[in-house]
């Protein structure tokens, strides 16, 4: 090694390796998987063990990606959340996300859903009553 290359080697990277992000500053905002345990919800919805497969079908992703989402290796992105909310499992997902929170709009939605369920039950009972009256005659 020549004198000049030895001097260059000592001067190379004088400040040392620097972190990609400054200390104390997050790389990005908290990902969705940090806010809600997706795997827990998926196992409530699909208790028979097909959670990765069903989630993959639901969010229109590969099985491998669905497994990564469930294990929080990669966070859910907004498109995945929207697909889940727009599915048949959307309300259960929303209930899981809301947890113990009870803002006024959420309480109102719960009451409205309860009333709708009672109306459906009443309609079914009226239909059965009308059928029973027809059968009685």
Could you name the key traits of this structure?
single chain; mainly alpha; 137 residues; elongated
What does this structure look like?
It is a single chain. Helix content is 64%, strand content 0%. It is an all-alpha fold. The chain folds into two domains: 31-99; 102-137. The radius of gyration is 28 Å and the shape is elongated.
Q: Decide which structural class fits the backbone.
A: mainly alpha
Helix/strand order = HHHHHHHH
Indicate the percent of residues in helices: 55-70%
The main β sheet shows up as: none
Quick overview:
The chain is an all-alpha fold. The protein is built from 8 helices and no strands.
Write the layout of secondary structure elements.
Layout: H1 3-11, H2 32-35, H3 38-45, H4 51-59, H5 63-70, H6 78-85, H7 90-98, H8 104-136
Helix pairs in contact: 4-5
